Amino acid sequence: MKAIVVGGGIGGLATAVSLRRVGWEVQVLERAAEFGEIGAGIGVMPNALRALEWMGVADEVRKLGTPRVSGGVRASDGRWLIHLPEAGQERVIAIHRADLHGVLLRALPSEILFNNVEVTSVEELDADLVVAADGINSRLRAELLPDAPGPAYAGATAWRGVAPGPFDLPITQTFGPGGEAGILPLGDGRVCWYVATAAPAQASLDPVELFADWHDPLPELVRSTADVLRHDIYELPLLPTFVKGRVALLGDAAHAMVPYLGQGACMALEDAVTLASVDGDLARYDAVRRPRTQAVWKGSKRAGKFGIELRSPLGLAVRNFAFRALPGSVALRGMGRFTSWQVPAMPR
């Protein structure tokens, strides 16, 4: 059986690795001139690490990433709102997106990878299975589901970068009025960071000014980063199906979500392993993945309501009090709703 994966990002490469593991012949088509990944850091959550274990690449991810045993949530003035127990943080790995992409790329033979390939229609592709892993603005999704809604602005913009350091910091998420930030330390002393604020699309904003009075070292991280990426945050409204005919939508092409649970790339890794686990049974793939990813999509949306979207002093005070009153062990159990995913059983 032959599969063609359209898109050479993390989701597309993970799909190729996974399908080859169960015996599929695979080709990966990427429209860019080179295979690569831009961005900053990613937190590999326990569910994503299980997917990488199944693919056989988790050990390399551990070597390149930074397993942390401490972390928590802070207010913008620096007060700790919650500390997460060390035992619950051991399997959260901070890694640069480019490093994770590189691990997956090295797991594939070069002869199945094709760049500079522009795919505009499924009809161009001769394969038993076509995987549309071509991102939130997927051309194949638009062709297959012409009546489905396209991406919608989610009301926030974000900046990301890698500060040179060296720093020695825990994984941290910070909430403030109408904004949030995150710190993901890398093993070589660099720090991946992001800051985000609720704002109109394409608003003229300066992150250095916006976050100048937030707790240290966030202002320093932003100021010391030479290459800062800005992205207005878009989401894909819920789709009625992830499959049509011989085509499966995967990753952001199927369920692009706001980033407030840190599960976007993790969902793509789950998708890839599930598609291989059902051995190309697309009805089963849709039945398994759509409820799971759409539940996480909704959870991410709710997290934004109590995070980046809060501005009123009363709302902020209530939210911060609730965090401080919540035991870390209880918080971890709440996170387990999203991170307890297990690899589906293989078909006979």
Question: Can you offer a commentary on this structure?
Answer:
- The chain has 348 residues and is of the alpha/beta class.
- It has one domain (2-339): FAD/NAD(P)-binding domain (3-Layer(bba) Sandwich).
- It has helices at 10-21, 46-55, 58-64, 86-89, 97-106, 139-144, 207-210, 218-223, 252-255, 264-277, 282-305, 313-325, 328-339, and strands at 2-6, 25-29, 41-44, 66-67, 71-75, 80-83, 93-96, 113-114, 129-132, 152-163, 171-176, 179-185, 191-198, 229-235, 243-244, 247-249.
- The chain has a seven-stranded mixed beta sheet with strand order 6-5-11-12-13-10-14. Strands 8-2-1-9-16-15 form a six-stranded mixed beta sheet.
- A hairpin with a 2-residue loop joins strand 15 (243-244) and strand 16.
- Helix 1 (10-21) packs parallel to helix 5, helix 1 (10-21) packs parallel to helix 10 (264-277) and helix 10 packs antiparallel against helix 11 (282-305).
- 45% of the residues are buried.
